[in-house]
Design goal:
By secondary structure, this protein is an all-beta fold. Helices cover about 0% and strands about 50% of the residues. Strands 2, 4, 5, 6, 9, 10 and 11 form a 7-stranded mixed sheet that branches.
Length: about 130
């Protein structure tokens, strides 16, 4: 069974930090791309970061604004998102997603990702 389980969300004040974690199981971790998306109520799901495990490359979407760092742990097959200097605009449900890196996949297109976690809520107060 292919699974992603997010953790680490919670409440934080403006300017605070959180580290989100995504535990993976049931698929070949090293052959996938794994991404973080977020979705606030009434808004579209947007890409936060994307890590191509098979190449080691990491990319960041506009929400990161230089404040976020995504990294992997190849031993326990997990990925993490370290978020600093958080703002109220970062309030959203954060999802971990994975996809096989087929030829024309788009790191920022949620529809290209077939494995999803349940999400973890991040709430940033002013």
């Amino acid at each position: 069974q292919e699974q992603l389980v997010e953790s680490g969300g919670g409440f934080v004040q403006y300017g605070g930090s959180l580290r989100l974690s995504c535990a993976t199981s049931g698929f070949r971790f090293d052959s996938y791309a794994i991404a973080w998306f977020r979705q606030a109520p009434g808004k579209e799901r947007v890409g936060v970061s994307c890590h191509r495990v098979y190449t080691g490359d990491t990319f960041y979407g506009p929400p990161a604004k230089g404040r976020f760092t995504m990294f992997r742990d190849s031993v326990d097959k997990s990925v993490h998102l370290e978020m600093k200097n958080l703002e109220p605009e970062d309030t959203a449900v954060y999802y971990c997603a994975a996809t096989v890196p087929f030829s024309d996949y788009d790191c920022w297109n949620a529809a290209d990702f077939g494995i999803w976690g349940q999400g973890t809520q991040v709430t940033v107060s002013s």
